[in-house]
Each structure stands twice: as structure tokens, then as C-alpha cells.
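Lab meeting minutes (informal)
Scribe: AK
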Amino acid sequence: MSAEGDLFSWPIVTPRMEAAVLEVLRKGKISDLDITVEFEKEFARWLGVKYALAHNTGTAAVHCALFGLGIGRGEEIICPSMTYWASCVPVFSLGGKVVFADIAPDSLCIDPDDIERCITSRSRAIVVVHYSGMPADMDAILSIARKHRLAVLEDCSHSHGSLYKGKMTGTFGEVAAFSMMSAKSFPIGEGGMLATNDRRIYERAIAFAHYARHSSFITLPDIKAGAGIPWGGYKYRLNQLCSAIGREQLQNYGPQMAEIDQAMNFLWDRLEGVAGIRAHRPAANSGNTMGGWYNPLGHYLPEELGGLSISRFCEALRAEGVRDCRPGCNLALHIHPLFRDLDVYGDGPPTNAVGSSGEAKKAGKSLQVSAAVQSRVFKIPWFRRYRTEAIGQYAEAFGKVVENHKELLADDPGDPETLGSWGTSSLVVSA
């Protein structure tokens, strides 16, 4: 495509960001806490919660969130099958297990109508992933959680700044976790954040993997009694180079997010009514937004294009210059051997079955949407700038491929046996 310029450049490095990083380096403060603590305070204010705790990855933040909730041996979390593995795998080290729920075909988030099927006497929490920035149906999810006295952990690694009915994702459940690695919409290099309004969750997370804070940040007597050594044996501190970047990103993110939102909606507005494709975005006037549109996707309807395979469709788009177009998204976790066959810790039975009450067997049915979604979603370009001429060229490419779909059918080999990946679309990233 012509005239792309900085259409995809990310992250945006500013002179202030560079100066902040250099200051940390020159003062030898990479492993200190002062800048990180300020970043946490500012992040908590931005999100609208009482406490934020920075981690070296989003995976670590999920791990500490699960421990903060008190998930223990033999207890279960309910998680959407279609998500990045870090949304649930850390529970294994706590002795917990995962029961998978299906996703809703439109939002690609956990389907509230499937959650109650997964609940057993050992259920402790629902993990909600706001997939690709799309807010999950929090009203329905919270209603189920209250009914069954389950905690809610929001995985907001895709949804920095996304709104659900006008309120920020990450503020609905008992605790939230964010990834901030360099490919995310809120990038700080490599890092994560735990956010909560619950002091006990916050202090348990500190006790678990942030030993340097035990003496000054832990106040609850029963937790303070065990201070001095990280309870989990983990060291999840965020380095202050990333904290310095994070503080600057908080200043920049609002305008950047607004421009991304304008650019992505411009594309989908241009493609409104084009056969075979639908936008993955909230309905207008719903009060929901996509935040920074991390890993944006489109829905594919092959029945409107004579059954053209998504692989051939994406191949044709790449030939027209839509270079990042790939079929599929995260593969359904419930089909991976880790959750069915592998004995990670040498216990004998598969790790995800250790201590099972047997009740969760009813949750082992085919997760139909998660299993079939790979041939019905595709990765689209993630525009970081509002450049109407350049974005318009991409819209024209989509229109051209759809218009000529009958010719593409003539040499359509169909889809391979497996689409998607254990990472995020064609790009493997960490959470």
C-alpha cells in the first residue's frame, strides 16, 4: 500500500520517554521501587481503583491475582477456552485446575449462558477475558458470580481503556490483570499490572511475589506474620526502566487510543455492508468501546461468498497488499494436551484432573463455538494513525477481493487441518 508512513509504527517513542529511561539508567535505579510505586499510584488513579501492583509480566499479574483470591489445591477456575494460555495456566502452580467455558460467537468473550454448566462445588472464580479489546457481558457474568458466590478476575491484557457501558474494564471484578508487553496497546516494554479495590487481595499478592515490600506495604496482621520471604518463591518485581516508560504512556495513551479508535472505525465504516465480513466491534451507542483495539479481528461469513475458504480469502487480501491478514485467532485451550493428558508435576493423573470431584466432567462436552471459530475470524490491519487515504486503500482491497470471490473459488484448496495458533493470530506474543 502507498502512503502508509507511520500508519503501523508502535510503540510511539517520545523524547520525554527517552529522557525518563536515561534518568533511571544514570541514577542506577533500575531495581529500586520509587518510580514503580509512582507508576502504580498513577495507574490506579487512571483506572479508578484503590490499589495497583506492577509485575514483570502480565502472566505474573494473573498468577498473583489468583493467589490473591485464595485459589488453592483442588479448587477450580472457569475460563473461556479461546484465550491466551496465561489467562489460566498459572493456577496449576497453586494446585488448582481449569474448567473451560465456551465463547459467544459475536463478542468472542466468555459466554454467560455457558458458565453455569461449568460450576461445581469446587468452583472459586470466573476468569473474564475482554478479547481483542471487546468488553465481555459483565452484567450477566456478575449476576452469575453473585448467585454462586464466585469471584471474578478480569484479564484485561487486550482491553486497556475499553469501556463497558461507560465504565473501564478492569473495575468490575474483585481483581484485574493487565499485560503491558511491547506489542500491546499500552506498551511499556515488558510488564504487567494487578488492580483491585480489595486490600487483602493486594497484600496477598505482595506477600506471594514482592518480598521487598513486605515491611512497608503489608498491614494485615495475619499476612504480616509471614513477611520477609516471598510465599510463592517468586520474584515478580517490575524493573524501573519499564516503570518510567509506563508513567509516560499514561500521559500519552488517551490521545493515542482515541486516534486508533478513529482509524479502526473508519475502516469498518467503509466496509459496512460488504458481503462475507462483519466488524468485531461493539454496537453503536452501547456505551462499549474497544480501547486500543489490540489484535483487531474481523468476522468471516463464508456462506455469503459461495463457501470460499477463509485461507483463500486471506491469501487474496495479502496479494492485494493487506500483509497482516491471517485466518484464525487463539486456538481453543481445551484441545491442548496440557489440559487433557499431561502430568506436569508427576502426580500420576493429568494435572488438570488432580483432585477432581468428578463433577466437572459435565463441562467436558464439545465447546462448539471455541472449536469452530478459527474458520470464521481473521486478523485485520491494526492502524495506529488516522490516515484516511491509506486506510481507504485497505478498504478498497477488501472490496476488490469480495467482488471477485467467484474467481477465487476456482482454485480454492480449502483450509488446512489447523488454523490459528497458541499465541495471538500469526504473531506469538506473551501476556
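Next up, CB showed the second protein from the same session:
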Amino acid sequence: MTASLLAQARDDNEIATVLSHEAAHHVGGHIARMDANAPSHAFFPKFQAAILGASGVEPVIGDYGAGSGARARGRALELEADWIGTFIAERSGYDTAKGAGIYARSGAKTGRSTLVTSSHPSLSRRLEVVLAARSEIHRQRAAGLTPRLTYAEAAAR
């Protein structure tokens, strides 16, 4: 998290959303998975097929497969980090709907729907994923569960 991004945050929800997203990169093993030869044994295949498909959000295969290999893989991992990060922030007591406002403002400030680099998906796509993860969290809570990624995978089967 840069000082510039921190200065843009309006409240703790936004800071938690960004920090949880960054922590999610570590949870998902994204540094190792940026290597084109890395096995895809980690979370992404389950995330894409089971969770996003079941939530009604278009699976991210287009984000993963479009463009150059490293760039496409980076965009897909960003979306995965948005999903996992939403679970981290929500389980920590933060409101990710409010926290995701930092994405919307970033797009309005720059006049673009993407971040500065093409390694990130569109901001509207990122908001879609955060809101879908949030819906899954609320579904789990309504069922009397403590929100977990594994419950989301099981519900998709």
C-alpha cells in the first residue's frame, strides 16, 4: 500500500479492503503463481469455476486468457485477491461495500475504468467481484455459518 493510496482512503473500511486484498495475494500464493510454469493447484481454478459461476458472476476465464500470458494471469489473480480479500475484510468486521468505494473513486479521478497498469482488470469488474463475494458472505451468515471460502465452494457443487 502506497502513501498515495492511503491518502485516498476515506475511512477504515477502505483501508481494510485494500490491505485485505494485498494479504489475499499472499493467501493465494500469487507471487509463485505469476510464473507461467507454476502449477495451477492453488485456489484459482476452484474460485473461477465454482464460486463465480455459482454466484451468477461471469467466470473470469476471459480475464485470465486474454492478452499476454503474464498480464492476463495478473488480471485473473487480481480478481481472485478481490474475492479472497473481501472474505478477509468482512470476517474482520469491515464493510467492504463501503470499502470498495476506493475503486470507484480511483476510476472517477483518473477518468478510466482501469488502474494505472494493464495488469489490473477494469474497476467495474473488480466491484462486481467484491459485491458477489459480499453476497456469498451474507448467504453464509443467513445460513448460520461463519463465512468461509470452503462453504462457497461446497454451495457451488
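CB comment: The first helix runs from residue 3 to 8.
No objections, moving on.
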